Amino acid sequence: MLNALSYKTKQFFFVLIKISIVVASFYFIYVKLTKNTDFEYSVFIDFLNRNNLFSLKTILFLLILTGLNWFSEILKWQKLISSIKKISLKNAFEQSLGSLTASLFTPNRIGEYGAKAIFYTKEYRKRIMLINLLSNVLQMGITCILGFVGFSFFISKYAVSINYYKILLLSVLTILLIIIAFFILSKTKFSFKGFSFEKIKTFILNYPKKQIVYGFWLSLFRYAFFSFQFYYLLTLFGIHISYLQAMMVISTMYLLTSIIPSIFIFDVIIKGSVAVYLFSFLGINTLTILSTVTIMWFFNFVLPSIIGSYFVLNFNFPKE
Questions:
Q1: Dmax over Cα atoms in the chain, in whole Å?
Q2: Of 232, 272, 234, which is closest to residue 253 (Cα–Cα)?
């Protein structure tokens, strides 16, 4: 049926899809910014004014931290992809922000895999998806390593009610399920969309180790930039705590929120709920934490996705 359509009809539907993606993205952003039930919009703006959040110096510094955050991600994508295809920093910029916009309303931004793949011809697409998986695993690895360290210090310092028996039981069951799943996949020829366990394992084992190390360090730098941005916002709201004490809670927050499945529009709500609970142990009020999480969301997701919408609208399939 698709082949039966005329060229102009295909182009029309293609443009319609691109516009729909951008309109849906802007709508989700609008809803979150204007209809936030966690706190009143007018109260939020007044709170920002009282803490001088709209000063040129503050906004510029927040933009610099956002830029460094995304520059780390863009550079990581350029370096990881260079093992199969050399791309410019400009191309990496377009692909990173364009795929962000296109994947906003997919669970845990899973749509990013397909969005990045369509920037390339068919011969590259499967490997592009695997490299994107590797990139996300590296970032998740940093979040888990630092998160577990922060969480260990957090529960040792504060009286958190934890059922260690249930956690141990759940951990053992999870590990057993992972081992069983790996064993079954390694002994069968099951594949999904051409991806088999054996192919994925071979691809990762043969992937240049130098590129993986490079990606690991860039993931660490990215984590450092956006976590410091969170701490900087707390200081702007008059919260006087040490950087290490703040990082203990921030790293715990990112660990917990990263393992909870969510859609972009609910991401800020989940992070806000977890952050409010964790920072309550430090005696920090709800409005301060929700304001910090909302500003982080705006600078690190909303602004980049607005830029990415330009690349979505101007996207064309690569020539075979």
A1: 67
A2: 272
